[in-house]
Design goal:
With about 350 residues, the chain is of the alpha/beta class. It folds into two domains: about 200 residues, Alpha-Beta Complex (inorganic pyrophosphatase (n-terminal core)); about 120 residues, Roll (Diaminopimelate Epimerase, Chain A, domain 1). Helix content is about 40%, strand content about 20%. It is built from 14 helices and twelve strands. The protein has a six-stranded parallel sheet, with helices on both faces. The longest helix is centred in the first third of the chain and has 16 residues. About 45% of the residues are buried.
């Protein structure tokens, strides 16, 4: 984002505007944290802002300040469509291609509002008037902090903004253990704590709220864990029947894929989750070092993301998807075993 872009956005936001803020479909901590952090900032500056999520999100994010004001498109389409139709500005956060907004894609595409993208994923599409894209950033929440700072308003960050942004940074950095957690990330986190983010409460609200059913499902996932040592790869499968037996709720499988990556000598991990209602297998991929799961997913599973964290999908059955995955690995043997 150029200095000229910042000046134009400052002018744009100098008077109250009708603003809509949109995360990607199946929003995670970074998506909701960045949206709500920006929401509180805009409300504080007298804008008429609303967060519209394409679909529902996990309960462990619903404590975030401002959550009660979020509109979920899949359950309140009339309100969402009216707000988008009347919006003067639309922020799209934590995604960089409109199809990532799910059923809201066409609605956003047809909107005449000025669009502002803030995102840290690779290969952004050119749909927004203003694009703030930085793949080196730990999270979109860190970018929203920078965006507020670029507008000269970092001193005005309050506890609600700080809490929202800290939550997203915490989740997208794997509690600050991923390589994307730079010294600057830690300085931003420290500033957010100084502004009122209670780091221990935030951690407990996100990670220490396990249900009995989720832990039972984790047990099933670990039982299904397989290792392919010649490719330094591990994978987990979860069928729809296994999800149903554990009374699966959205977000229950969050972080499961990392168990595969925690195994000694494993550098590539995947989880395949059957979703019969959508007719797809949802895939999460993680890696360590130079192996790019972003490229792997884009090339094979209609997905993408970051170098070390990405997602994808498959229209095949669960068994056929895993067979495809295993059949592909020999093509990457040299990268997985440098």
């Amino acid at each position: 984002m150029t200095e000229q872009d910042i000046k134009e956005i400052e002018t744009l936001l100098s008077s109250p505007k009708q603003v809509v803020i949109v995360p990607h479909k199946n929003p995670d901590g970074d998506a909701m944290g960045s949206c709500l952090g920006l929401y509180h900032y805009l409300i504080k500056n007298n804008h008429h802002a609303k967060v519209i999520a394409p679909n529902d999100y996990p309960d462990f994010l619903k404590w975030l300040p401002g959550n009660a004001d979020v509109i979920v498109y899949e359950s309140d389409k009339n309100s969402a469509e009216s707000l988008i139709e009347n919006a003067e500005i639309i922020f799209t956060l934590d995604f960089n291609a409109l199809h990532r907004a799910g059923d809201m894609e066409t609605l956003l595409e047809n909107s005449k509002a000025i669009k502002i993208m803030i995102d840290h994923h690779q290969q952004p599409h050119d749909y927004a008037t203003y694009i703030y894209s930085d793949v080196a950033m730990s999270s979109t929440c860190e970018m929203v902090y920078d965006f507020i700072d670029l507008l000269g308003d970092a001193p005005t960050i309050d506890a609600a903004i700080a809490t929202s942004l800290y939550a997203g940074i915490l989740t997208d950095t794997g509690s600050f253990r991923f390589p994307s957690s730079t010294s600057k990330t830690h300085r931003v986190a420290a500033n957010l704590i100084d502004k009122g983010a209670n780091h221990s409460d935030i951690y407990n609200s996100i990670y220490d709220t396990n249900s009995y059913e989720r832990l039972q499902l984790l047990g099933v996932a670990l039982k299904n864990l397989k290792v392919i040592p010649e490719y330094r790869t591990a994978y987990i499968t979860l069928s729809q029947d296994e999800l149903n037996a554990a009374n699966f709720k959205k977000g229950d499988t969050e972080g499961f894929v990392n168990y595969g990556l925690s195994i000694k000598n494993i550098v590539f991990a995947a989880i395949f989750i059957e979703h019969k209602q959508e007719g797809i297998i949802k895939i999460s991929l993680r890696s360590e070092g130079e192996f790019s799961v972003n490229e792997f997913s884009r090339e094979n599973f209609d997905g993408g993301g970051h170098t070390n964290a990405a997602g994808g999908k498959s229209d095949l059955s669960l068994i056929d998807t895993v067979e495809k995955f295993i059949s592909i690995l020999p093509r990457y043997k040299n990268t997985l075993n440098p």
